[in-house]
Design brief:
- This protein has 420 residues and is an alpha/beta fold.
- The protein has three domains: 149 residues, Rossmann fold; 197 residues, 3-Layer(aba) Sandwich (Rossmann fold); 33 residues, no CATH class.
- 43% of the residues lie in helices and 16% in strands.
- The protein contains 16 helices and 14 strands.
- A six-stranded parallel beta sheet has the order 1-11-10-9-12-13, with helices on both faces. Strands 6-5-4-7-8 form a five-stranded parallel beta sheet, sandwiched between helices. A three-stranded antiparallel beta sheet has the order 2-3-14, with no helix packed on it.
- Strand 12, helix 13 and strand 13 form a beta-alpha-beta unit.
- Helix 5 runs parallel beside helix 6.
- The longest helix is centred in the N-terminal third of the chain and has 21 residues.
- It is globular.
- 44% of the residues are buried.
């Protein structure tokens, strides 16, 4: 059922609740990760065979000639070019300022040496995720980029996904998915040296594994099922709004969320009717119907756009479409959203595949505290200070005072000794 409710209805808060860490996934991740730490490749192969069906010995993929149409190659190249351009433009630049005594202080950045990316391949081979992760690491200057993706019983990775990985800059590719992929990259095994950071989306088990290896490696974020919110004032065709709501409901877990907030009951009814009608025509209809049956699509009627924006900010969606007049002005009210798509001609799918920013985004309400993946997530930030004698002389009293308060006399002497 697709419900239409007014703001203030208690069902909105129920809709907003998205548990990030199912206990089943947490328990499974703990068990599998412990075995991988102890047994390395032997444990990885055991769980690849158990969960993915591949029983071969060779975990690493050797990429040879790929049978891909010219049309698909052109699409992947187009997406890669746009994402790389956006990524390079977004990189933070080193900076410095003068200190009062004539020295300098500032920040500079260095790329990580070796990172890992996870590319889902269960219900769909997400070739776009290859572009949206590996390209960013490459733009940041990372030399070694490890990619892991499940390959099923045959051990054959989708050729388009492989093409996208190689084009984007992956230096190693492994036919390993799930918890076992995260463990292999985080701890290192005989086949794969450990990485410094793991990025990329995944199911609840991948998410639980990433959370549990945090500290052994850095991670980008904890992500869950896909979600979208659309704020509409009736100026954009209801068919378009419905199509956009369905774009995130077809991913396959059944736990996806699609929220539409509009300013009239009449438009809400049109969106509901269109959403149900379009569902009937989708190739992944059964997956979408699972979302609908779980009340994963909700339409809220707000008195105006300001109230509607508050409903969306409380939801804190992964993807947020502003389908209104003067969308860029309305966008100024956004506080919690992973990525924003402004205007009638900006469907969320443009962001998923080609627009430029990465589609690896916070979900489950985490957009109120986390950001989407950027190239800077694959770099290390270094602050620096270069004092002169005058700078140290001016700050000596402050250093010595803090050292006295904190009982750290060696700290204070490190400054005072220079003037003896």
């Amino acid at each position: 059922m697709i419900r239409i409710v007014k703001t203030g209805d208690g069902r909105i808060e129920e809709f907003n609740a998205r548990p990030a860490f199912p206990q089943e996934a947490e328990d499974a991740a703990f068990k599998v990760l412990a075995e991988i730490r102890r047994d390395g490749d032997r444990a990885v192969r055991k769980y690849v065979a158990k969960f993915e069906g591949y029983k071969g010995k060779d975990l690493k993929v050797d990429v040879g000639e790929l049978d891909i149409s010219a049309k698909i190659r052109a699409a992947v190249k187009d997406a890669h070019r746009r994402v790389m351009k956006f990524s390079k433009a977004s990189l933070r630049e080193a900076w410095s300022m003068k200190t009062p005594g004539g020295g300098k202080a500032g920040e500079f950045f260095s790329p990580m040496d070796r990172v890992g990316v996870y590319v889902p391949g269960g219900t769909a081979p997400l070739a776009s995720t290859s572009v949206m992760t590996v390209t960013l690491a490459k733009a940041a200057g990372v030399k070694e980029i490890v990619a892991c993706t499940p390959a099923g019983k045959t051990g054959e990775v989708n050729p388009v996904l492989l093409y996208a990985l190689k084009l984007a800059g992956a230096t190693e590719i492994y036919r390993v998915g799930g918890i076992q992929a995260i463990g292999m990259m985080a701890y290192g095994t005989e086949s794969c040296r450990k990485v410094q950071k793991i990025a990329g989306p995944g199911n609840a088990f991948v998410t639980a594994a990433k959370r549990q290896v945090y500290g052994y490696v850095a991670i980008d974020q904890v992500a869950g099922p896909s979600e979208i919110a659309v704020l509409a004032d009736g100026s954009v065709d209801a068919r378009w709004v419905a199509a956009d709501l369905l774009s995130q409901a077809e991913h396959g877990s059944g736990l996806e969320k699609s929220l539409c907030v509009c300013t009239s009951r009449e438009f809400a009814e049109k969106v509901r009717a269109e959403t149900l009608a379009q569902t009937e025509k989708l190739s992944r209809r059964e997956l979408v119907e699972r979302v609908i049956d779980r009340d994963g699509i909700l339409i809220v009627v707000a008195k105006d756009l300001e109230e509607g924006m508050e409903v969306v900010n409380r939801f804190a969606p992964e993807h947020f479409e502003i389908m209104t007049k003067d969308a860029l002005r309305v966008m100024k009210g956004v506080r919690s959203a992973g990525a924003v798509f402004a205007g009638a001609w900006t469907p969320e799918s443009a962001g998923d595949f080609v627009a430029g920013p990465s589609h690896v985004l916070p979900t489950g309400g985490a957009a109120n505290m986390f950001n989407g993946l950027t190239p800077d997530d694959f770099r290390r930030r270094h602050s620096f200070v270069a004092f002169t004698k005058k700078d140290l002389a001016e700050t000596r009293a402050t250093i010595e005072a803090f050292a006295e308060v904190e009982g750290l006399d060696a700290h204070g002497r490190a400054a005072s000794v220079r003037f003896e």
